[in-house]
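WARN no homologs supplied; continuing
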Amino acid sequence: MAATNGQNGVAGLQISGGAAIVAPVSAFPNGVPGNALIVIPVNKPSDEMIALMEQGPAAVTMEQMWKLLGFNGPAVQVQDDQGRPIAIGLEDLLAGLDKHWVEQPDDLNRGRIYAQELLKHNRLLRAEQVLSKIVAKGGTGDDWLALGIAQLSQGSEDAKKLDKAEGTLKGAQNLMKENPYPSLHLAKLFQQKKEQDKELEFVDKAIAIDPGCIDAWAYLFQFLKQKDGEDVAVAELEKRAAGQATAAPYIAVQGYYANDEATRDKAVVYAEKALAKAPDDPLAILCLSALHGQKGDLDAVIKVLQPHEAKMSRDVRLANNYFEALFQSRQIDKVTKLLNALAGSPNKDVKQFAIERSRMVAQSLQQQAQQLAAAGGQQRKS
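OK structure emitted
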């Protein structure tokens, strides 16, 4: 089922015990289980790898592993000039992006792509340097925000960076008056400075800018919980939620309880309140369906999602949860009808999802037919 925090997830197999299975990735159409071990075939081992294997079993560091596999740094997936996915070493990727930008330093989009990768891989100082040049050349509010995040992320090691980040993030907020994230990052900045009054001030400002910002409500909940305890935090969010048209406060609270089986019933209560507050909110629908899915209550998942089939042509997360519940409960006729409807979606992610799942269903039915045929043959022989 899709994750309740708004990110996409998969319902992979639950593997336990001492046995091991070696299988291609294609054997796991719903996602590789999180506790799986990956076996990577090496077509042409290097001389260094051959010498290492001749010595018997050996332990290697992550850096040595990537080097033995022929990558300069950890492997990352990018697209070639024809849009096909390929793997490349991180150091080679960053060096290539750096060269690409240096060749045309006035092309700010090249710099933005480079800075995005630097931030993603925690190369904060270089990201700050690149973003500073972009901002100086007339960058947008998003560039200011990214620069402020790069500076803020270095604040634990360099207090001066916090002062720089404060000015940068305030500049970003001036440029993006309807975006709550500059204020939300300013709250994080004052958390590092241990100035609780200002921290709360900027969380409140983020919520005032966008009452539907779940991240802001989640931050407020954590702030109040650490300051005054969980009961006070829940009561305050309940109180504030009463005056809001959005389901965001309840979605934030359910997210706090969702990942622990012991508190999942509480999460369901708040997810139901979220859906009651905003019955057509896709994320509220997604959260409640995912929680029922985590509890293994497929009937409840179907009951929540069935009235919202029309939305699934636009939201692959809802489509995924509904498909999983129908397929796992072996309602193949409804699965087929759903996938046929989704195949005509104008949303490319939903369309691709329908194609992939249709293939999976066809393979599953074919395997079942083969197993039945084999079982029938065995019975005739006996």
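Residues 43-70 form one domain.
OK
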